[in-house]
Write a structure and sequence with these properties.
Layout lengths: L1 E5 L4 E2 L2 E2 L3 E2 L4 E5 L10 H11 L4 H5 L1 H7 L3 E8 L2 E8 L5 E5 L5 E6 H11 L9 H5 L3 E2 L20 H11 L3 H26 L8 H24 L9 H34 L7 H11 L5 H49 L8 H68 L7 E6 L2 E5 L6 H18 L4 E4 L1 H4 L4 H12 L4 E6 L7 H10 E4 L24
Parallel strand pairs: 5-14, 5-15, 10-13, 13-14
Antiparallel strand pairs: 1-4, 1-6, 2-3, 6-7, 7-8, 8-9, 11-12
Amino acid sequence: MLIEVRCDEFKSHGEIRPPIKLHKGLNTVIGSKTGSNSIGKSTFLMILDFIFGGDDYIKKSTDVLKNVGTHKIYFTFEFSGIMYYFYRSTDNHQEVVQCNDNYMPVETMPIGAYHDFLFNHYGIDLPLTSFRGVISRYFRVYGRDNLSEKKPLNIVPNEKTEDAIRELMKLFNLYSTLADLLKVYKNSKNEHSTFKKAQSFDFIPRITKRKYKQNEKRIHELEKELASMADENNNALLGIDSQEAEEISSIKGYITILKRQRSRLMSQLNAMRADLRPEIKQYGADFSKLANFFPDTNLRKLEEIQQFHKNISGILQSEFEENQAKLQSMIDLTTNDINSLEKQIIELGDTAKLSKVVLDKYSAIDNELKTLIAENNSYDKLNTLKTTEKSYKENLENLQQELLIELQNEINIQMEKINDKIYDGEKKAPILNIPNASNYTFMTPDDSGTGTNYKGMIVFDLSVLRLTPLPAVAHDSFILKQIGDTPFENILKIYSSYEKQIFITIDKEDSYSEKAQEMMENTSVLYLSEGGNELFGWAWNEKNAKRPGLN
């Protein structure tokens, strides 16, 4: 527990205050008899929250930081008889410095590690939460946002109600029971959502219930047609699917193309060979006979032309032979391809005997069948995901409702016990009602008075303190001063009965009963008043106020 707080800026009438010693149970900060404000009571509670790892002292007590300046808060915890010394500075509040017993620095730890230190040494041992998640809501100090007497679960007024309820469940160690099922439900919900999104982008088929029925009918027809084709072809189609049928048909089609290509090449080769057949003609003899009829014919010229033809024929002969070799090579390659493909067909057995027309028809039917089956499977899958998500959600809500009933009953029973001690069993206790995970109400039946509402919040906090590992609570004076004298005295008795630390501030000590004054005196840890006995030794809200020690 926290046993000491000190700061060089804590002053009284110009002198540094001695260390503020704290103890188990109730720790009371008492204000002046005149009920002066702005003397540092709420600020001290903010500092305690700062010691317990909070940030609101930095974020919300800006007047203190402005007028006091940078300062260090030194403090000591005791756990199992061992003292732990620390300080935390306002100018580097994301670190906490562990010290020796003279508050000399030994080791610096990040604020998260410090939270873990407190979590472990207080023996909180709760899953799925943190030290600040446990304690922050129950330090109710003026200037913080957790002061709604009608919404005591909320750490800030606009916090989502389901978040506030979830944190309360964690504090009562009920949420871990729910967490696994919640994870399963979220995964199921995400899977359902992802599947629907994939359908919206046409990655997965999406059909209506009417189309589903139409598909069922058409699937039945196609299955019958495939069975009939199998019978007609001596079951040669059995065991193959549309892809295999397409491949076989494609091979057969390619063989046909190759054979046509080979026929064209062979035709070209034959034509070329025909052009290259030698023709032995004696043009000379003919030319002499031609002279008998045409005496003036230039036979020499004709012989020169004939020789030219012979020369050209020799040149072309070489080119024709080269082209002939190329054509023969192409024919041979084509023949090899045909033989290879025909060998593949033969290896397919009876399937190879099927005609391309049959294979194409079979493939078309099988493809359509697969498409329709995929559409219906997608429809079934969507319904399965929807049903599964709904089932997990119902299971989650049922379990959640059982746990919430258990939670509210446990708190309400404890609040009634505490309330009976305050009013000797004569007045109704506050009631926490949590109908579901996103809604709750907190009220005292038939009594909506301000004092009753704030008393209800105190009763709630004390119930939680009694029932959970919550290590401490803090209640500022503005909460307590709304409550009547007799119930206030009884609340002090209840405060004093706790072993865990409770920090409160009180105004005008002598305005309460003698018994109440006696309890406050016995539990007091700090007296504050105006005129130099403020927490920091001066009041900067006064006109012409000067910090002590400055001219």
